[in-house]
Amino acid sequence: MFARRLFNYPSVGWDHPFAELNRMSRQMDRLANTLRARPGMPWMAAKVFPAVNLTEDKDKYYVRAELPGIKADALDIQVQNRKLTITGKRTIESEGENVRYHRREREAGKFSRIISLPGDIDANRVDAKMVDGMLTVAIGKLESSKPRQITVN
Asked: Per its UniProt record, what PANTHER family does this chain match (predicted)?
């Protein structure tokens, strides 16, 4: 009787006041998982490619990007202001015309990734090398952006 007056619920089968919200939340989660798993909806499963690490030392910034199966001559690397742009195209050999896929996770096509650098760079001191699918770009820092040691008199 008390529950009926307080929460406007029938006294038989009384439930927690937030049970309906919990049920709706579970339904929304199921709907999101269903949409995420559907093929043909690339915006739901977008991944960032290539994966990169950005590090620095006293003189340079280092960008390391994983680019398996991509040849160095298929890449366009540019620096401007505080940004490094890596552009390229990944191609995958055709499996054949009458092939039925059971799982298809490797994507092909053009890609472009812009990496913002934390400081000013010297565009004349940029080196790039590709070894076993790992691209390493070393970008020199401007002298004015390097830390200076100051002695106290």
From this structure: HEAT-SHOCK PROTEIN 20 FAMILY MEMBER
